[in-house]
């Protein structure tokens, strides 16, 4: 049987990941409504559905551990609200870029905390983290958009720099607010920046 401390750490890590999945669902569902093509709308709707399914699986595991997810989400919500206010996209492509940058870094954060999870929680978390359908769609759609539009490419590269700074600030807030999610903030920052640079290069952009 896991110790109370390990259960608390698992609940905290799963709650952070569940909020990321819920945020992804909201964002993808909204992007689907304003998508420029029917195909984009369908693809984004399906991706949103997958994020919601991961959220439900994470919620079930948190409840199994005796965690109070609504309370944990309420504690984290003010910081997420502030992040949303500071990173309002101006158009559909900026919204896609926001998901690409933010979700990528938040998954880096969650992966860094996997070592604290019990076996069952680890399995649920890894299932969510290994689902690359959203990242694949965003990478392919953004890369195609910037390839033939240098003005858009320049704008999204600049927007990406703002997003990475704001997201890393958000990660630091989370590590301070939820110290049970055992993560070395300095080490994670270096890793996240390296991974972010790799993801931006995949778009043909400089981080």
What does this 3D model show about the protein?
37% of the residues are buried. Helix content is 81%, strand content 0%. The chain contains 8 helices and no strands. The chain has a single domain, classed as Ferritin, core subunit, four-helix bundle (Ferritin, Up-down Bundle). The chain is mainly α. The protein is globular.
Tally of separate helices: 8
Helix percent reads over 70%
The major sheet is characterized as: none
Morphology call? globular
Q: Quickly name the level 1 CATH class.
A: Mainly Alpha
- Quick one: how many beta strands? 0
Low-confidence stretches: none
Mind telling me which CATH architecture this is? Up-down Bundle
Structural class computed from helices and strand pairing: mainly alpha
How many domains is the backbone divided into? 1
Write the CATH fold name.
Ferritin
Pfam families: MiaE_2 (PF13794)
InterPro entries: Ferritin-like (IPR012347), Ferritin_actino (IPR059125)
Protein name: Ferritin-like domain-containing protein
How are the secondary structure elements laid out?
Blueprint: H1 4-33, H2 38-64, H3 69-86, H4 92-112, H5 119-129, H6 133-147, H7 150-177, H8 185-202
Helix pairs in contact: 1-2, 1-3, 1-4, 1-5, 2-5, 3-7, 4-6, 4-7, 4-8, 7-8
């Amino acid at each position: 049987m896991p110790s109370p401390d390990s259960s608390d750490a698992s609940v905290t890590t799963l709650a952070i990941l569940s909020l990321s999945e819920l945020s992804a669902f909201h964002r993808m569902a909204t992007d689907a409504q304003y998508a420029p093509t029917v195909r984009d709308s369908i693809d984004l709707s399906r991706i949103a559905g997958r994020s919601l399914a991961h959220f439900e699986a994470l919620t079930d595991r948190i409840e199994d551990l005796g965690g109070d997810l609504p309370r944990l989400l309420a504690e984290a919500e003010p910081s997420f609200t502030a992040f949303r206010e500071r990173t309002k996209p101006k158009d559909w492509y900026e919204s896609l870029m926001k998901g690409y940058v933010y979700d990528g870094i938040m998954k880096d954060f969650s992966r860094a905390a996997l070592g604290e999870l019990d076996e069952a929680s680890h399995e649920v978390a890894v299932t969510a983290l290994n689902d690359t359908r959203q990242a694949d769609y965003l990478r392919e759609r953004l890369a195609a958009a910037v390839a033939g539009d240098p003005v858009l490419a320049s704008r999204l590269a600049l927007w990406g720099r703002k997003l990475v700074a704001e997201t890393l600030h958000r990660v630091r807030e989370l590590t301070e607010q939820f110290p049970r999610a055992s993560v070395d903030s300095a080490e994670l920052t270096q890793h996240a920046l390296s991974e972010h640079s790799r993801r931006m290069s995949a778009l043909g952009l400089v981080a």
